[in-house]
Amino acid sequence: ENLIKTLKMFLSAFLQIFMLGLASSCIVIVFHFPKPKTTQAITSTTPTTTTTTTTITTTTTATTTTDTTTTTTTTPPPCDAGYTHFEATSKCFKLSPGPASWLAALISCVNEGGNLASIESQAEQDTVVGLGGIGAWIGLSDFLDEGAFSWADGATVSFTNWRANQPNNGNNNQHCVWIRPTGNEWDDIICNKMVPYVCQKQVN
User: Fold this and answer.
1) Contact 149, 139 (CB under 8 A)
2) What is the DSSP letter of 16?
3) Which pTM does this prediction carry?
C-alpha cells in the first residue's frame, strides 16, 4: 500500500515537471522510501535447570570382637610334698626319720601344720606301716591320765592294734605309744626314746 502511494506521488511530480518545460533542468529527485517494518523475532529462552541427585550409600559394618578367656585351673595335689594320701579319708601321712622323742616329734609335726598321726582303722594302720615298716611314734599317749589313752589331734580312740599284754606302763614310766618295727603292733614305751615318727595333715 505504501509503495502504491509512492508511485502515485512520483507520476504526479513527473507530469508537473514535464509541463513546465524543465526538460533541460537537472533535477535530482530523491525518493524516500519508508523503511519497511522489521519484524523482530523474540526468542524466549527458557533456562533449563538440571538437577543432579547424588545418592550416598553409607555401609556400616559391625565388627564383633570376641574375647576368649582361657581359664586354667590347676588342681593342687591332695597332699604336700613328702606326704602320702590315704584315699579313704582326708588324711595325708609322712614318715619322718627323726630320731626324736615323742614330745619333740609332736612339736615337729605341729610346726609343719599337722600333728602326730592318729590311726582310726585297720586301713589307716596298713597305710602308715606301708610308709617304711620301721618303729615310729604315733600320736597316742596317756601321760595326762594314766591308762586313759588319747590321740594328740583329739580323734576318738575307736581302733587299737596293741601288742599282746600291752599297754603295761612298765616301771610306771611308759606313757607314749609307737608302732613296733616287728609285727607292726602298738606298744607303750618311755616318751624320751629317740625314734622316727609319723606326721599327718589334712588333704589340701
Assistant:
1) no
2) H
3) 0.62
Q: Give helix then strand counts, H and E, for the chain.
A: 3, 8
Q: Give the burial class of 91: count Cβ atoms within 10 A of its Cβ; 0-12 exposed, 13-18 middle, 19 or more buried.
A: buried
**Cβ–Cβ under 8 Å, residues 84 and 198:** no
Q: Is the dihedral of CA 134, 147, 163, 171 positive or negative?
A: positive
Residue bearing cell 606326721: 199
pLDDT in tens, 35-72: 444 444 444 444 444 455 555 555 555 656 666 676 66
129-167 confidence digits (pLDDT tens): 999 867 999 999 998 888 899 999 999 999 999 999 999
What are the CA-CA distances from residue 157 to residues 15, 17, 143 (Å)? 177, 178, 15
Cα 140-204-151 angle, rounded to 5 deg? 10
